[in-house]
Amino acid sequence: MVAASAKGGREGSDRRVCRRSSRRPRGPRSRPRSRIAGGLAPAAQAEAAPFPVRRGEVFWADLSPRSGAEQRGRRPVIVVSNDGFNLTPSWQSVIVVPISSSETQARRGPTAVPLPAGSAGLRRPSVALCHQVTTLDRAKLTERLGVLPTDLVERIGTALRAALDID
């Protein structure tokens, strides 16, 4: 008689095959942590940003958590993702460029696009940090500040191509 392991089965063997259960444990920690770690409770995520967004619009967004030199906290961002994605209700993420009013950031070179005060509702001169382009869940977008003029959106596109080395 051939051993069960050689045949790949249990025939002729009383040995039991143990398998891991794919079920999650029950109890207070059985809920996935990622929904809580995202910054907004599930109920708040469902209510936030139910509106369509468009390329070139500026919103307040929650950029926490972040690490290192990344822009963090509540700050304005520019939506740069394609409107084909932006206008699809089931598409939950948007690509954004953070905005800073730091004069140091304004000297970063071709990936930092100056934005004059008053552009898209910005109160002070600012800079679009195209070298820090990132993806956010739509729920992190809150108040809409305004829309950038077409020429600034084109300059941001040029800066993104420079940051990503795309011709």
What is the average per-residue confidence, as pLDDT, rounded to a whole number? 76
Radius of gyration: 24 Å
CATH class: Mainly Beta
The CATH architecture? Roll
* Helical proportion, percent range: 10-25%
Q: Count all strands and give the number.
A: 7
Poorly predicted residue ranges: 1-10, 17-49
How much of the polypeptide forms β-strand, as a percent range? Answer: 15-25%
**Number of self-contained structural domains:** 1
The largest pleated sheet is described as: 7 strands, antiparallel
SS field, number of helical segments = 6
- Note the overall shape: globular
Backbone structural class: alpha+beta
* Helix-strand pattern: HHHEEHEHEEEEH
First CA to last CA: what distance?
Answer: 68 Å
**CATH third-tier fold name:** SH3 type barrels
